Amino acid sequence: MSKQTMMKKREQEKRRKFGMLIDLDRCTGCGSCMVACMSENNIPFRKDETDKLTSINWIRVFKLSNHKPFPETEICFLPMPCMHCQGKETGHTPCVSVCPVTATDYDSSTGIVSQIYSRCFGCRYCMVACPYHSRSFNWSDAVWPEGMEKMLNPQVSPRMRGVVEKCSFCYHRYQEARDKAHFEGRRNIAEEAYQTACTESCPAGAITFGDLNNPGHRIHQMVQPDLENGGRPKQKNVFRLLERLGTNPAVYYSSTRTWVRNMGDNRLLQENRQHTAAGSNLQDRRA
Amino acid sequence: MKLNRRGFISLGLGATAGLTLSPLPYKLLDDISIWTQNWPWVPVPRDGQVSFVNSVCTLCPGGCPITVRKVDERVISVSNRKETIDSASGVCPLGLSGPQLLYTPTRVMSPMLRSVNGFQPISWEKAISILVSRLETLREGGKPDKLAALAGSNLGTGPALMNRFLGAFGSSGFFHMPSADDAWEAVTWKLTGRGFVPGYDLERATTVLSFGCAIVEGWGSPLRSMHARSLWKETGTTLVQVEPRLSNTAAAADRWIACNPGAEADLALGMCRVLLERYPVCRDRLGAAVTNPDEFSSHLYHHYSLEQVAAMTGLTGSMIESLAVDFAASKHPLAICGKDEGRSPIASREVFATLMLNILVGRINRPGGLYCIERKSDSRLSANFLHAPEKVFAAAAETSEPSIELLLVAGANPCYSQSNPRKTVEAIRKIPFVVSFASHWNETAMNSNLVLPVHSHLEGTTDFPVYSGLKQPKLGLSKPVSKRLFNSRYMGDVLIETASRLGDAMAPFFPWGSYETYLKQSLGDRWQELNEKTVVDLPQPKIRSIPMMNTSAFHSLPTRLTGSRQEYPLTLIAKVSMRLNNNADASSPFMMKTVEESVLRKNRGFVDINPDTADEQNLSEADSVMLETPHGQATVSVHLDAGTAPGLLVMARGLGHGADDEYSGGKGTNVNELLGEMTDPLTGYNIAWGARAVLKKV
């Protein structure tokens, strides 16, 4: 390993990179993550939320199918928050690089892509650039029925019409944990001190959240990110969505089912066959 | 200086370049976005002192321990309590919606009296006076038995107090919404002379054979079931799901057996026959458990050959055989039953078949098996099945002279959750005076004469016994997390005050100053412990074995669907989801937001249909159809779903609420209106699992 690579690695280790691993074999599609997120982040609701193109969700659970006929059909649920992409080079996140007013930014000290509502003027360029459709636009003012504004979380500001919003990995919880650590004279933030609302609420225990750069955190062990290779997972059965775009997302998925993993990179049928063969060879070698 | 054309252009270019390079345009864009967001109608939540309160969620029979986060007096969110055993992690969508259900404007805010101009708010003084006057009229007319009460369950101090009130008044008309445990109790009582409810040792089982139980969709105590399923992933426990459609549980199972709808008991009895034929030890276990083993075996040999069971279930004989052999070969096999969430009464045949299967593999009261928990309810099966609410309401609707003149309803919403809700509404309207104790407006409250607001689940103290398939039943205590927002009271306080106003005949039976005093006295020594922990174990006698059973009564219990195959070629069944509230009240706005667009679009609900069946019917995705069953009809859209068996239609439960709520009311169809009623021949409970159906394109 060259000196430069070692320096780069050491530099990277100093930084935190919060990430998420979602075990798709455990996810049951119950929707708790969505409701917990709405409750935590003051996500508005309307009388009719059946048009999913205009419905605001920071995490959305998709239903995948292997498209085989009955009774060989299989389904799988895939929760999708913002991927908090790092990009090929730090900060070259698809949405960040197109925002004309830096209303969204990549924080190198946490690996979290922020969204600053008071800067956003609603051009929606970021929504076009995001390959994961993780961003939502406020087409109208949020209206809380009389009395229900009492349940709003003071740690998260409600948004108004004309701005884009998205998952923040519950950044306010990070701030709270960081402040607490500072107050107690510590620099490190314990793994359990900062967990997102969706992680805490998942009854199936399908979501693991933590610092990908911290070998002591469970997510690091479960993913084994390859820091020299854009954070690609070394762990068997772990994958990221649209890996080949090189967006370097911080959200990882795991599944023992090949068809689910193949679907993660939106491959064509022919590509799937090649990938499955290549993947099984690779896994054999690792074993 | 003269400004010529060249100078003018140069100046313009220079100004443009300067402006572009200056921060001014960016600053202006930034300011514009800030100015356009400073509107008074965007709420700014007030900050304050953060605190956490431990309590128990009483929104479903699961009784999960929760922690509620507050900022000053405001309730902000609900989270799990990791220190407790049965809810190791997470909270279900309904539990997470607690703050919304607390603050929703659909709460009943004060006593409401129905008049010709609709409901009018009245004072508590007037409301209780009206109730007392109605009761006095009944008593003076010598008709105390014309008072009836319907509770959500028969567990806990609330229903006990109501039962006591009726007893003191001279009425035996207390009944409750039946549960799966009630069916278990009734069936085991018929079999053994003692009533048992099931305690499934899910955590230690090595193979779980589930007959349609929606384990990851809210079955039993929902979080405990989901946690058990996650545990199985680690321990290698095999989950075999028997179900006619690819539900979320079937998708999460290790093996999915796509059996014909309604044939679960047939499959279980077919497996019993395989076990008896193959394994002498199973024959010994049968001999030790039942008084008539030969009769039972003969019944199986005559009616449950592999060919017969294959025809009934749609499976192959070899599949049934391998299922039975694999099940018996497992170290700790466990068979469980209770379709969907396992809360509504189960067909007695299904309970019997599941019990027999567990007996034959020797898993009664054994680790990883089925524990029989004795429960001594006051309610035994009555003649004419008048313990079942459906039968009570049907009797009330049919007679010319009302059999009930005053009905009290608490914790139940029969006008939505019973089969044939329209008939229930008709029956309720025939009752001269209906009093509904409700925290939220629901269909039954809308059809009552007097609506009395009770505290919501985060406002009051109440005990909450939890059976729900737990091996060790629990007792929970919900705490007043929030101060009371509206003019609500405990139902118990209303009953105590009413009794005291009714004079000497009633008052001595209610010597407590308030419901909380009564609760404290009832809980006795456990009060202190419950206050600290909020969940404790319910003391249970250890049952080594269940008494010898006589199975004769269960040998012919057919429960077939009504309607002809020619007229109704398809079969409609219901599906459950944790994203919709299937209990008495409607789903929260957050939950409605999570509902998939293949379940609800605008106000139109969907039915799932197999793509091949849709082809035969000349239907495409999202086509509008009229869905008809012998019990009702509804306009719905179709969703092509490869996981649905050919010939099957599947509709979501929890939609079609009629109450005046803009977020959940009038959306989709209440599937109970289409499923109708199917009476269990032994218990009398409604066990409708499906209905014959036909689709007509509109």
Folded structure, characterized:
- The complex is a heterodimer of chains A (287) and B (698).
- Residues 279-287 of chain A have low confidence and may be disordered.
- In chain A, 26% of the residues lie in helices and 16% in strands.
- Chain A has helices at 3-14, 32-40, 125-129, 171-183, 197-201, 218-223, 258-264, 269-286; strands spanning 18-23, 60-65, 75-80, 104-107, 112-115, 136-137, 164-165, 207-211, 225-226, 232-233, 238-239, 251-254.
- In chain A, the strands form five sheets. In chain A, strands 8-1-12-11 form a four-stranded mixed beta sheet. Chain A has a two-stranded antiparallel ribbon with strand order 2-3.
- Chain A starts with a helix and ends with a helix.
- By secondary structure, chain A is of the alpha+beta class.
- Chain A has one domain (3-286): Alpha-Beta Plaits (2-Layer Sandwich), CATH 3.30.70.
- Chain B is α/β, with parallel strands linked by helices and 698 residues long.
- Chain B folds into four domains: 50-103, Single Sheet (N-terminal domain of TfIIb); 112-178 and 387-479 and 486-537, Rossmann fold; 181-374, Dimethylsulfoxide Reductase, domain 2; 570-697, Barwin-like endoglucanases, CATH 2.40.40.20.
- Chain B is built from 25 helices and 26 strands.
- Chain B has a seven-stranded mixed beta sheet. In chain B, strands 20-25-22-24-23-26 form a six-stranded mixed barrel.
- In chain B, strand 21 (600-601) and strand 22 (604-609) form a beta hairpin.
- In chain B, helix 5 (124-140) crosses helix 20 (491-501) and helix 10 runs antiparallel to helix 13 (306-313).
- The termini of chain B are far apart.
- At the A-B interface, helix 2, strand 2, strand 3 and helix 5 of A face helix 2, strand 3, helix 4, helix 8 and helix 9 of B.
